[in-house]
Amino acid sequence: MSPILGIYASQISGHLWPASSYESISTVTVGAGGISTVTFSSIPATYTHLQVRWIARSAGSESTPGGSLMTYAAPHANNFYFHTLYGDGSSTTAVNSGGTSFATLIDYIPGSGATSGVFGTGVFDILDYTNTNKIKTFRSLGGYDNNGSGTVGLFSGANNDTSVITSLSFAMNSGNNLAQYSSFALYGIKGVA
Amino acid sequence: MPVTYTPIASQTLSSAAASVTFSSIPSTYTDLVLVCNAKNDTAANQRLQLNFNGDYAFSYSYTRLYGSGTAAISDRFSAESVIDLGFFGGTNTTGYLQSITNIQNYSNATTFKPVLNRWNSQAGASGAQYTAVVIGLWRNTSTINTLALSFNSANIAAGSTFTLYGIKAA
Q: Is the ipTM beyond the 0.90 threshold?
């Protein structure tokens, strides 16, 4: 693209990955009425890593902090182990869990108890998702701020399975729908062939 | 699949400046990623601050989780005019503040704008040394078209770099 207008300084170029290595695979934006689960299926095995960038809000009546956002991966089994470190503005908490069919992606995202328009956000990385010699490890960074409440944290874990990940799902632990305008975008990152 | 993660603009300061601004940001992407490697031009610790669209009303807030080297700490700032993207010393250090900020769905006109940041200030043998994650909020549904960066009470030092990327979802 042409140089952006209005830059107030000298310019250099550069980027985090080669321009051809980061590709958009699919995006789901939740419509009116919400949806219980966002799923990416038939994920191509042609990348090295996956990244999901999202904003989300619960359609339920959670106060603040709201419910947790969870992720699932196919093949499904009680193989998830994860731990979290988060802060709520005054204290810090570290927890872990395992042997579950899901992993917590973030504690917490806002529900209807939060100010209208407030969404949580995060970035979720899965490394070497097609490598059948490795169990699948992931990390997540996310949170939400509601001008007086909110949480932010680091989340990581493993799906104790060496299968290729072919499907990813996202849902609220409360069972409530994800609210309208929640959006999940799946990207693939290629390595060097 | 469409290739994305595109550098929009970069700035390297050849001399100290009060602020760095990215303006007329195209609204054709889904997310923005701002990569800063900066320090201030004084010997004091200063906060790198982010502002959107010239809105200096008190419509920003943020919650942090950070480690100081001896403890994990969480704090919160409400009704602010900026979001802090890091805390770091200036000319007394050889290191720089590393700060990467994700601004997702920045061009929609329906949601407030969440800001997700990771920063580190590792000054070597002396000075501030922290690692942090920050969640911020701009309580405004406007499309973000301008980012302004400055330190709270100092110039941005020469050699500081700032790069803005755009990511477009399919």
A: yes
